[in-house]
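ugh ok fine here u go
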Amino acid sequence: MANRASLQRNGPLELRGGLAVVCLAALATILFGNSGEQKRTFACEASAQTTVSASQHAAFVREFSGPDDVANAPPTALDRSLDILFGHKDATPPGQKMSRPYSVTTDSAHRIIVTDPSEGLVHIFDFEKNRHSSLGGPGSQLRTPVGVAVDEDDNIYVTDSVLGLILVFEPNGKFQKYLGRVAGGEPYFASPSGIVIDKETHRIFVCDPPRQMVISLDKDGHILGHFGKPRGGKGPGEFHNPTRLAISGNDVFVLDSGNSRLQVLDLDGHYLREIRIPELSVETGLAIDAQKKIYVGNLTLDSIDVFTYDGKFLYRFGSLGKDPGQFDRPCGIWIDSRDAIYVTDMRNERVEMFQLVGQE
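structure:
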C-alpha cells in the first residue's frame, strides 16, 4: 500500500506519505500570442495538518451497494404506521449489487442514480420510498453507462462510452431517445464520459476524451459548440483527456485530467481561468456545493480534496480503507440541494453518503 500513499513531483508541488495539500492562490498573468486572452492559474504548495476526519466537515450517513440496502433501510414514520395497520410487507428478493460504481447524481425526488459500467447498469436508489430499480441489463439499449445527469423534469441522461451516444430515459425508466447521432445514424461522439446539464439554459455539456473536446448540445441533440482542438493541447481552452464536468452559475468546470488542471469556461466555452491539481486520473470525480466549494477525488490518498471557488486548498477527508468514511478509489462525486454528498467508492463496490456540516 505504500506506493498508493506517495505522490510524485508535479510542477510546484511535492508530496510524500500522508502529507496534505494546501493550495495558496498564486495569481499569474500570461498573454497568449494574438488571442488577447489572460490566463489565471492557481498553484499548490505542500503543508501538514490539513487532513481531517470526515465528521468535522462531512458526517457519515450511510453506505449502500445494492437493492437489499434499500429494502433494509430504517423505516420511515409512514412505513411504521402501515406496519401497525396491515402488518409487515413481504421481503424484497435479493438483487444485483453494484460491481464498479462510477458516476452518481440525484433528482428532485432525492433518488440516487449510479452508473455501473462493468455491469451495463444504472441503479436508482429511492430511500424515501424504500425502492430500488435499474436501467439496462439483457436486451436493453445500454452497453457501458459512464456519466449520468438529470434535467429539470428528472429525465435521466446517460453517456454510453461503447455506443458513443447519450441515452435519455423518462423518470420512470422508460427509454425515450438517443442523442448524438449524425447523418446516416453514426454517433457524433467517440467515447462520451462526463455529462452535466445547465437547467437554466437547458444546454448539455459532454466530455469526449478521445477527441480531446467538450461538446455542447441542446435537448434535441443539436450541436451548439465544441470546445478544445483535435489531438488536444495544453493552452487555454485546450484539453488532454477531459473527463468530468460541473456547473456553478455561469461557469463550466472541466476536469482536464491529462493536463493536471481544472479549467473554467463560460457557458459559451470561452476560457476564464484554471486551477492546477496534480495527480489527476481519468476516474477522478468532481462536484461543487451551494457555497461554491470544489470537491475533487484524490485517488492517490483515497480522499476527497476540497478547494475554494478560486482554487485555494481547504482540507481533505477520508483515507484508504473499508470502514464508514473511508474509500478505496473514490470516483464519482455529487452534492444535492440538501448538502448531502455522495461518493462512488469503486473498489469497495459501494456508494457512501455524507451530510456536509458547518455550511454557511
